[in-house]
Specification:
Distance between the termini: 12 Å
Radius of gyration: 14 Å
Number of helices: 2
Shape: elongated
Structural class: mainly alpha
Largest sheet: none
Number of domains: 1
Number of strands: 0
Length: 63
């Protein structure tokens, strides 16, 4: 279980980074505001998931 969570940490962080980058690219190109809002919602959700995964990994390491 611990190794699975530890493998998920980089993926969770990478997912947040990719969505953030997509949002920045959309904003720089003057893209649709609806797309920007959708990407922001995805980023916030993925940040929540990343925090849960990281905290779980920290908790498992302390056991």
């Amino acid at each position: 279980m611990e190794s699975i969570v530890n493998m998920l940490v980089p993926f969770a962080i990478l997912a947040v980074g990719v969505v953030l980058l997509l949002g920045l690219i959309n904003m720089a190109r003057g893209g649709s505001p609806n797309t920007s809002q959708k990407l922001m919602r995805w980023r916030v959700g993925l940040q929540f998931v990343a925090i849960v995964v990281i905290m779980t990994a920290i908790w498992l390491m302390g056991r």
